[in-house]
Amino acid sequence: MASTTDELAPPVHQWIREHAHPLATTDPTTALDDLEPLRTMVGDAEIVGLAEATRAGHEVASLGHRVFRFLATEMGFRTLAIQDDAAVVHQLDHYVSTGQGDPHQLVAALWRPRRTREMLDLVHWTRSFNQRFPADPMRMVGLDPASARPSDYDDVAALVTRTAPRVGTRLRQRYDVIVTAHELAEHVQQARGVHPGRPFAELAREAHEMVDSLPHSDTKSRALEQAQRIVDFHAGGFAADFDYAALRHQSVATMNRLRRETGTRIVYWEGIALTANAARFEPLAVLEEPFRTVGSQLRTELGTGYFPVLLGFGHGTLGDVHQGQRVPAPERGSFDAALAAAGLGRYLLDLRTAPAGPVGDWLHSRRGLRVISGVYDAAADPDHYTIGALGEWFDAVVHVDTITPTTLL
């Protein structure tokens, strides 16, 4: 943690109380008048980053949904970009564009923290928006490459078993272990002490070798293709050789291509470690080396055309993806503590209006900012703060004091 001194607290708390715009509700179905100050803040920005401090808080998700609706209905934003499987999100995009498909099943195929009632509500609203404005629709884009899905494991095992039953049995023994990563990521299994032992990438490669050992046939070719996707899924995960720089470059390239080709304005809705304008983000778990964020590259390339917003909170209860843990009040001296101490419940704050002096010093000091990623232990809450400068990482804050759990589908 950074320094816990609170000598700057009184002027900071006063500034927040005097400049924050109270938000009437977290309910995205209500009027959006209280978000009107966001219009001036965002201005002509081409990409707005919505940076969730957690993906397991209902009020964080709902406030993000309200901001998304405002940007869509009032400011002409027409693309929602998320770090998820491009093939799955393409199917969601087809649904919100045409109404074809089962939105519940499609949301259930996303990355597990997004398989929530809150995400489904967002998808339903986006579909209704497109029905009202068919000539100017909202699109959805997945920024991650298409990857293995649970059905691939069954497909490969079935194809192999028909050709070589004994090989199919050995292959399924490995797949039955590693397919669990689609419900509980391998690095989370490791953190919770439930990992079975051998790296999943090793088991996936062994299964691929089994397929490759079979006589050549059209069946083998199909099975090899799917088996390779399974290898890539596990070898590129947080528990193996995750490449953040590759993700950053690909994500920025995709969003820039969309801007150039269509002129669309984009809502980039992701976690803090992706959206913050952080040239050097100190990881909390899993990744060992500091890295540059997607948001930092967007700021470098777009300047004020990229507008990052922190969706933060004070305390509360997380959804089942984090086993319903209760998050305590923020650590003294952290940015979270000052944002919560304003005592306003819910508010919107433009960080760029901070005056020189104590408030400006506070915004640009290096302090703790809580990040609840895939791995979280409430008993070790102080370990879940990264260190950075709030005023450099974000242009605005949407804050809610208390959260309740999201609802998994």
Automatic annotation (TrEMBL):
**What keywords tag this UniProt record?**
Hydrolase
What biological-process GO terms show up in the record? response to antibiotic
The protein's superkingdom reads Bacteria
Whether Hydrolase counts among this entry's keywords is yes
Q: Its Enzyme Commission number?
A: 3.1.1.-
Query: Under the GO molecular function aspect, what terms does this record hold?
Result: hydrolase activity
Per its UniProt record, what InterPro entries does this chain match? Answer: Emycin_Estase (IPR007815), Hydrolase/PRTase-associated (IPR052036)
- What is the designated name of this protein? Erythromycin esterase
